[in-house]
Amino acid sequence: MTSGWDGVPSPYVELSRDAWRALRENTPLPLTSGELEALRGLRDPIDLTEVEEVYLPLSRLLNLFVQSDGGLRDTVSGFLGEPVQPTPFIIGVAGSVAVGKSTTSRLLRTLLARWPEHPSVELVTTDSFLYPNAVLSERGIMDRKGFPESYDRRALVRFVSSIKAGAAEYDIPVYSHLEYDVVPGASQTVRRPDILIVEGLNVLQAPPAGQLGVSDFFDFSIYVDARVEDIRQWYVDRLFALRRTAFTDPRSYFHKYAHELDEDETAAFAQRIWRDVNEINLVSNILPTRARATLVLHKDRDHAVQRVRLRRI
Ligand SMILES: Nc1ncnc2c1ncn2[C@@H]1O[C@H](COP(=O)(O)OP(=O)(O)O)[C@@H](O)[C@H]1O
Ligand SMILES: CC(C)(COP(=O)(O)O)[C@@H](O)C(=O)NCCC(=O)O
């Protein structure tokens, strides 16, 4: 475990995989390989060893944070001389397109819900708050999907602040990756969970001056990190895998690419979307938020987490 370079004090604790995995202590593995298979994103090679060595220490740490939040609430209740109602503990999960945020988030939802203290864990992804394609086209920003301006930021902040304030239930829109658009008339209902996980590219973005951002409501945040060249490769590989699977569905927005493009054209298409959209968004908007995360999980080329950085509290 190190705490800085060249003796310079750092606000982070840096841990190697070996140091991190020892922090699992006696946390049990509450997951079968079949269950993990169902949570795994397309082309994400995660296995039970990764869950045991990386995600169980994280699940243990998060459980400790949730408990200490309860302790803090008791302190404030004592100070005010009146009970303070518990509100959901909110966790943000940020990182690039194709870095594996969805697998991390779905896995955490399952692991955290298996602690007896907080059985109800909800997961929302910020794509629910993307403007519909019709609005993006009208504004001339269809090629900026995933950039901060492609989201209804106020609606997202309204939702998270209402959940933090204890709203009994809240309906949010649903985004379909298959249709590449917000689904008209569909909604996801979030009912006062013990823990809410909010996953998305830009969740750690600082709000405009004088306004609140979603990250203002986070009790803990995680940035899933990897080298840009590795994520590019994962994006390209995943696009090839999608071409063989999701794109063959006639409802897929990208259906024509399943048949029309040969291997070379598919590679060129994937490289272009990566370079012109996702890499620019990563470098200019997402990476600069990494330093704001409570915890950074750094993946190597094989997707395995090799370094963990925890912010000092
Ligand atoms: N065009 C697409 N068609 C179907 N599914 C997709 C498409 N693009 C991405 N997905 C799926 O959507 C999920 C979220 O992807 P993404 O936003 O890149 O985040 P991450 O890879 O970090 O989880 C992944 O499970 C991915 O497989
Ligand atoms: C839908 C996304 C913006 C991710 O949204 P998030 O849930 O992270 O807010 C992203 O997966 C995406 O589709 N980006 C557009 C460029 C592309 O097709 O790769």
From TrEMBL:
Q: Give the UniProt subcellular location, in the record's own words.
A: Cytoplasm
Going by the record, the broad EC class of this enzyme is: transferase
Q: What is its EC number?
A: 2.7.1.33
Q: Which residues bind ATP?
A: 95-102
Q: What is its main location?
A: cytoplasm
- Can you state which reaction this protein catalyses? (R)-pantothenate + ATP = (R)-4'-phosphopantothenate + ADP + H(+)
According to the UniProt entry, its GO molecular function terms are: pantothenate kinase activity
CDD domains, sorted = PanK
Q: Which residues form the Phosphoribulokinase/uridine kinase domain?
A: 90-229
UniProt keywords (A-Z) are: ATP-binding, Coenzyme A biosynthesis, Cytoplasm, Kinase, Nucleotide-binding, Transferase
Pathway listed: Cofactor biosynthesis; coenzyme A biosynthesis; CoA from (R)-pantothenate: step 1/5
Q: Which PANTHER family match?
A: URIDINE KINASE
In Swiss-Prot or TrEMBL terms, this protein is called: Pantothenate kinase
The gene behind this protein is: coaA
